[in-house]
Amino acid sequence: MERGKMAEAESLETAAEHERILREIESTDTACIGPTLRSVYDGEEHGRFMEKLETRIRNHDREIEKMCNFHYQGFVDSITELLKVRGEAQKLKNQVTDTNRKLQHEGKELVIAMEELKQCRLQQRNISATVDKLMLCLPVLEMYSKLRDQMKTKRHYPALKTLEHLEHTYLPQVSHYRFCKVMVDNIPKLREEIKDVSMSDLKDFLESIRKHSDKIGETAMKQAQQQRNLDNIVLQQPRIGSKRKSKKDAYIIFDTEIESTSPKSEQDSGILDVEDEEDDEEVPGAQDLVDFSPVYRCLHIYSVLGARETFENYYRKQRRKQARLVLQPPSNMHETLDGYRKYFNQIVGFFVVEDHILHTTQGLVNRAYIDELWEMALSKTIAALRTHSSYCSDPNLVLDLKNLIVLFADTLQVYGFPVNQLFDMLLEIRDQYSETLLKKWAGVFRNILDSDNYSPIPVTSEEMYKKVVGQFPFQDIELEKQPFPKKFPFSEFVPKVYNQIKEFIYACLKFSEDLHLSSTEIDDMIRKSTNLLLTRTLSNSLQNVIKRKNIGLTELVQIIINTTHLEKSCKYLEEFITNITNVLPETVHTTKLYGTTTFKDARHAAEEEIYTNLNQKIDQFLQLADYDWMTGDLGNKASDYLVDLIAFLRSTFAVFTHLPGKVAQTACMSACKHLATSLMQLLLEAEVRQLTLGALQQFNLDVRECEQFARSGPVPGFQEDTLQLAFIDLRQLLDLFIQWDWSTYLADYGQPNCKYLRVNPVTALTLLEKISREMKDTSRKNNMFAQFRKNERDKQKLIDTVAKQLRGLISSHHS
């Protein structure tokens, strides 16, 4: 039962499911019916489902049939009406076809005319468009043609402007055309071509100014020279007029010197070789000698191209290289003034060009760049001048070089370059100039001293007398009163040396001109240089003459007289310098001339040489001395050599009459002292080990001859027995031994008024030992005579006793 209920329930569920599936099939799209059908086949009741499906299809067919039967009559009526309309439609079609045929026939000509009109309008529109495009393209082509013409005629800056207009104004309007694209692609090449061509022009310009630097510098220095000439012409008359109160012997020569050293005669020194007619002409400037347009064009071109900085760096780099080449002096520059002139011309030309570029361009070069170049040039120029000027041994060349450097500095100063270092270097060259002058004047003095006859200057007429007095400031009333012929006390080298000193002062003055120095500085420079001339050059020349081996006493005497007069002339040299510098000697810090000291030193050297010469002559006579120290004979006259020596001294001192009294007295005293000392050395010579009293007697005769010479007064001015004091040591020693007065000597020794005050115990002991040796030797030879042995023994004992006491005196003195 229950099973039957369950089966009934399952059939109901299956029927409901089948119904649902059918509804779903009816309402679902055909494309989505697959899952529904699958659910049927997944079940086990598909047979029953098919039955139900068939049943449902039959029901729907019956419904369709009912509906068709219901609407059939309306369908038949519609078909009938449609058949009627088809006939009318055929008629209408025929009418439309006929009308169309007629219309086509009638409108055929109009269509042809309209087609022709259309074609004409199209052509007209094309022509108008073409004209418009050509009007846009023509300016481009004209500008391009203009660009080519400008390139061909090398008008590169206008070409660059044209290219700029073409690129930014015209080409953008027709950029879609192919030929415009070609032009656009060609524009960078044209720019590079313009840059290359303008750079080539710049290189030609740089080469041109390198070649023309010499000429430009020469022109600038001519302009500076002309300006200096004009300035000096204005100042020249007051300068000469200010000298009217000078000393007679100074201002005449100085006026002449001004004329010879004025700027008018500058060409004589080799600075400028300009004809007179050229001085009147206007000297061209740098812009007249060099075409600066290439650098201006190139600067504008690179500025337009945006490469101005590149151009400035290139220009400055190339000019720096050229500056280094210009500043490299030739190795032989020091040989001639032309070498220096060419060197200076190139430097001036270089900086004149740079100054012109500085003032005619904006920023191509600036003041800092110019100052840097000038600092480099200044240091290299000064170094080169220091090196090359050191080779100059000709003072004239050094003077010309100084004038050239001054002109060089003045020229560059006009263009605003600082030149103080050049003038400082000129002060260094001034020292070198002084050295070359000193070397030159050393030769001049040497020639004067070598050629002098060292004899007083004889004059036979008033004219000759005035000539000598005009050359040398000398006044002697007594000499003026003497009749002709007469003699000046000095020899010819005195006026010659005096005039050469003045010439040296003139040479120093020449160098000081145009150095922008004050009168005090010029005066100080001249005085210092003159002092060097006096204390070094002239002094050395005099010393060399005085120390000459073959110089005689006569020449030495004349040198003393000459230096005495030159010493007196120093005050005139002081006045001479004062006259040409207008600086009073009383001015603070004024350097004094050392001429007095120089001539005093020379005179003292000559005096010393006289003393030395006399002593050498005495030594030569003494070398002829041939004493027999062992003789027992007693002589009765002085030795021959000493007689000759005394005769020589008498004749020599007779020549000393023109010497100052003190010099003659000193020479005589020196000779006597040297003679006394030499005789004492002969007596005490170590080689003479034995000495007899007879030899001592002969030596005493010679000393008496010397004393007689001293008493005779060979040189006036000595008081009583002053000259004899030179032989007092010998006299007391000889008296002690000849008189054998040992008791008095030993008793009075050490007292201030003793008889043998000048006898030294050492000297006495040395001489006593020599006599003792001789007596011992004689005693041994005479030992056969007994009666003599005792006397000799007693005397020897006395000698030993005296010697012992002398040794005691010596030891007590040392203790």
What would a concise description of this structure say?
This protein is mostly helical.
Give an overview of the whole structure.
Residues 260-280 are annotated as: Disordered. One of its GO terms (cellular component) is plasma membrane. The protein has 815 residues and is an all-alpha fold. Among the domains are: 216-226 and 286-416; 433-605, Tetracycline Repressor, domain 2; 624-738, Up-down Bundle (Methane Monooxygenase Hydroxylase, Chain G, domain 1); 761-814. Helix content is 76%, strand content 0%. The protein contains 28 helices and 2 strands. It has helices at 2-27, 34-42, 46-152, 156-170, 178-241, 248-261, 276-280, 286-289, 293-304, 308-326, 337-360, 367-389, 395-414, 420-451, 462-471, 477-481, 493-512, 519-546, 553-568, 570-581, 595-622, 640-655, 661-684, 693-711, 728-739, 742-748, 761-781, 786-814, and strands spanning 458-459, 486-487. Strands 1-2 form a two-stranded antiparallel ribbon. Helix 1 (2-27) runs parallel beside helix 3 (46-152) and helix 4 (156-170) packs parallel to helix 9. The longest helix has 107 residues, at 46-152. The model is unreliable at 238-280 and 784-788 (pLDDT under 50).
**SSE order:** HHHHHHHHHHHHHHEHHEHHHHHHHHHHHH
The poorly predicted ranges are 238-280, 784-788
Strand content: under 5%
Radius of gyration of CA atoms, rounded to a whole number: 68 Å
From the 3D structure, determine the CATH topology of one domain: Tetracycline Repressor, domain 2
End-to-end separation:
185 Å
CATH class of one domain: Mainly Alpha
Describe the biggest sheet? 2 strands, antiparallel
CATH homologous superfamily (4th level) name of one domain: Exocyst complex subunit Sec15 C-terminal domain, N-terminal subdomain
